[in-house]
Amino acid sequence: MYPWSEHDKSCRLPIIPPDILKRFSVHGVKDTRFAGCARLLQAIWRERRGLEIGTLVTSDGEVRPLGSRISERAARAGCAFLAPDIAKIVRREVAYREVGALIEEQRLWENLLSSQGLTFNLFARASADRAYATRLFAGLFPDLIADVHRVIFEHSPGRGDGRYLGDYTAFDLFVAGRRRDGALAFVAIEVKYAEPMGWRGRAGNPRYRELTRACALHVDPESPQLFTEPMAQLTAEHLLAATIRSEIGEGVQGAFVIIAPIGNREAWNAIERYQCSLVKKPEMPFMALSLESIIEAIRKCDDSSLANGLLERYTNFEPVRAVIDEWEPFTTE
User: Fold this and answer.
1) With contact defined as beta carbons under 8 Å apart, do 96 and 62 qualify?
2) Residue 164 needs a FRET pair 20 to 30 A away by CA distance; which of 9, 205, 266, 333 works?
3) Which residues contact residue 262 at a Cβ distance below 8 angstroms, ignoring those fewer than 6 apart?
4) Residue 285, Cα to own-chain centre: how many angstroms?
């Protein structure tokens, strides 16, 4: 299940020394090993572009610089996004978001680590160009998608609707289209970048247990682990995808897909655990794809400029390794 090898040095990331964290103003934040490297990578990316540093308000009210954020002025200019056309699409999508959609605008525009920002950087152009979207998603899911009709960000078919989960669970991206035979099809996508699979459990929601029994996705539908970290979010969104298929009716096919970078081992550990909880061939398929594979799929759509920008911004950790290689401990006499 893991998309990496322990012996593949290209996937091994360092623990960032405190001196370097302070030098790039990314210290004082609790991060996993991958998140620490990703935060430093964003700080290096920001500095290389001459973008003004943003700030963090600590729990005790202190305001201090944080290298993985950009200033409000840079954020308003759309500098968190990889091209002006992407920033323009994001502004439109935010303005026309679904009722109840959870979009933390300050985080989206200022926090370079935002997985929601990553989702827009990956797929904004697909939402604006149906032909491009069809090439991209038909390439990624050839047995499921032949023609894309809509690409929707932060989507739920019915927030609070008892026909579904009865809460506000939503997908980062929802792709609706048709298969080669003309049948309706969809792909429901969750995107992770630096964050682990921490998510508040939903064991207290009786609708969830009702659905684990009815949807028959899991080997043990009564397992309490399905509703606790690190599997709770995967369970919820997988159930939501299954109920969408059930509500649409006969003939529709779908898949629930999670995307995460190779280096985010906490996310992949959770993915493997969840995979092991599933029956052999669930009626609603579950798929896990690396962020790196999505970037290469974008490249194959003749969007090399965007692919290169995504690689530099999110998955090429050579700048981090270079900083480590050049580092010498700060000493005082």
Assistant:
1) no
2) 266
3) 3, 4, 11, 268, 290, 291, 292, 315
4) 19
pLDDT at 201 over 80: no
Q: Could you count the other beta carbons within 10 Å of the beta carbon of residue 96? A: 9
Query: How would residue 9 be classed by pLDDT, with cut points 50, 70 and 90?
Result: low
Per-residue model confidence (pLDDT) at position 6: 47
Question: What are the C-alpha distances in Å from 170 to residues 42, 149, 158, 240, 255?
Answer: 27, 19, 9, 8, 15
Q: Which residues make beta-bridge pairs with 287?
A: 257
Terminal Cα-to-Cα distance of the chain (whole angstroms): 50
Bridge partner list, 173? 153, 189
Q: How far apart are CA 72 and CA 52, in angstroms?
A: 9
Give me the phi and psi of 64, to 5 degrees please.
-140, 160
CB-hemisphere CA count at 13 Å for 145?
26
Which pTM does this prediction carry? Answer: 0.93
Phi and psi for 188 in degrees, rounded to 5?
A: -105, 125
Q: Three-state SS across the chain?
A: CCCCCCCCHHHCCCCCCHHHHHHCCCCCCCCCHHHHHHHHHHHHHHHHCCCCEEEEECCCCCEEEEEEEECHHHHHCCCCCCCHHHHHHHHHHHHCCCCCCCCCHHHHHHECCCHHHHHHHHHHHHHHCHHHHHHHHHHHCCCCCCEEEEEEEEECCCCCCCCCCCCCCCEEEEEEEECCCCCEEEEEEEECCCCCCCCCCCCCCHHHHHHHHHHCCECCCCCHHHHCCCCHHHHHHHHHHHHHHHHHCCCCEEEEEEEECCCCHHHHHHHHHHHHHECCCCCCCEEEEEHHHHHHHHHHCCCHHHHHHHHHHHHCCHHHHHHHHHCCCCCCC
Checking DSSP bridges between strand 286-290 and strand 253-260, what pairing results, if any?
parallel
CB 171 within 8 A of CB 233: no
Q: How many residues can be counted in the chain?
A: 333
| Structure token digits, residue 152 | 């929707």
